[in-house]
Design brief:
By secondary structure, the chain is mainly beta. 0% of the residues lie in helices and 53% in strands.
């Protein structure tokens, strides 16, 4: 089992920045592929970014590429999502997810999820 707790969400103006954190506990974190997903009201959950256990491979959705960056610190059992140049359409609940093996871009491929953190971007 892996327990995930997200933090760092909040209200920010368009063009601003936030850094989300996801603290993991339980099973070995350093071998886990990690992902960030988001879900806006009335919309399906969508992939945002993913990272391999070593941090050597990262993937970002086209909608956030160049603005968001995923990273991890295995010594702290934490994965981060740095979000810059935020847009109102980035408003959503952001979820952290974990899986064994390589990172993935589909939410059904992740068995472990955090409770989510709200990000609201005002125009």
């Amino acid at each position: 089992q892996v327990q995930l707790v997200e933090s760092g969400g909040g209200l920010v103006q368009a063009g601003g920045s936030l850094r989300l954190s996801c603290a993991a506990s339980g099973r070995t974190f350093s071998n886990a592929g990690m992902g960030w997903f988001r879900q806006a009201p009335g919309k399906e959950r969508e992939f945002v970014a993913a990272i391999s256990w070593s941090g050597g491979m990262t993937y970002h959705a086209d909608s956030v590429k160049g603005r968001f960056t995923i990273s991890r610190d295995n010594a702290k059992n934490t994965v981060y999502l740095q979000m810059n140049s935020l847009l109102p359409e980035d408003t959503a609940v952001y979820y952290c997810a974990a899986r064994s093996g390589i990172p993935a871009t589909k939410d059904y491929q992740y068995p472990y999820w955090g409770q989510g953190t709200q990000v609201t971007v005002s125009s």
